[in-house]
Amino acid sequence: MTSEELAEIGLRFEVGGEIATITLDRPDKRNAQTFATWSALARIGRTLPEHVRVVVVRGEGPSFSAGIDLRMFTTKGLPGQGSFASVAALDGETFLARITEAQQGFLWLRRPDIVSIAVVQGHAIGAGFQLALSCDLRILADDAKFCMKEAALGLVPDLTGTKPLVELVGVAKAVEICLTARTVGAEEALRLGLAERVVPRERLDEAVGELAAALLTTDRAAAAATKRLLLGAADRTLEEQSAAERAEQAERLRALFGAKGAARRDGSAQS
Ligand code: CAA
User: Exposed, middle or buried: residue 47 (CB in 10 Å: 0-12, 13-18, 19+)?
Assistant: First the structure.
């Protein structure tokens, strides 16, 4: 997608070296998200340049994101995108396909070959909170406020946020946060494991730069293999996980010290 097309949707996408930055860029509407936002995010994921290792997701202005564009709740809806009423009128299969496509905008941020960082200032509500949860890591400004508002609006969080939320805070705390739709401030988020770091707002860029630089110091293939192991750990038994570690290490050792790896290290590789 061209930068003009992205700008119309309220997004910016920039690549600098191995770091890509996605910016929600509709600050006057607190970076409210639409189906077009999610399709564009999915497209960015599908076409991400291969050399990118770190993806930073941020929001322009006072809020990270105020969640879904509330015009979806009106009868008129969003120009060219309909409303919840028109989505609800779709046949079952088309309806589910629409949500599946929306979820694709979030799911790729967990890919093992990249590390994604959400940079959150101000409000991250509903879809905004879920977008932050879909990233591997979260750096927060001290004014960050998370709120899973869906239940208060008669909906469920369906943009892939429930699993990472439970993994980070546990089922009981996730139930309490979602079913009260209360606001979780930055310090509590840090305590609960919803953030890696909280910094004064004016230090946000610096903190993200430091983290991205640190992530780029490790070997890319080893980082991807390690992320695969970590992401799969919760669903495997200890024995299965040990087997997965062995398999990944065998692959690493072959790449580093096998015939081809040795040749590469000696500088004698032909290709
Ligand atoms: N959709 C559309 N427009 C929004 C918006 C949203 N979600 N949130 C804010 N805006 C607009 C406001 O209408 C206002 O526009 P105008 O200047 O044209 O009047 C502008 O953004 C600024 O808003 P505020 O003056 O309210 O800004 P604030 O900084 O004082 O407050 C806020 C920020 C706390 C985020 C507040 O705007 C707010 O509560 N917004 C609604 C949040 C919400 O309920 N989101 C839905 C979450 S549920 C979800 O996302 C469902 C899902 O995934 C399926």
Answer: exposed
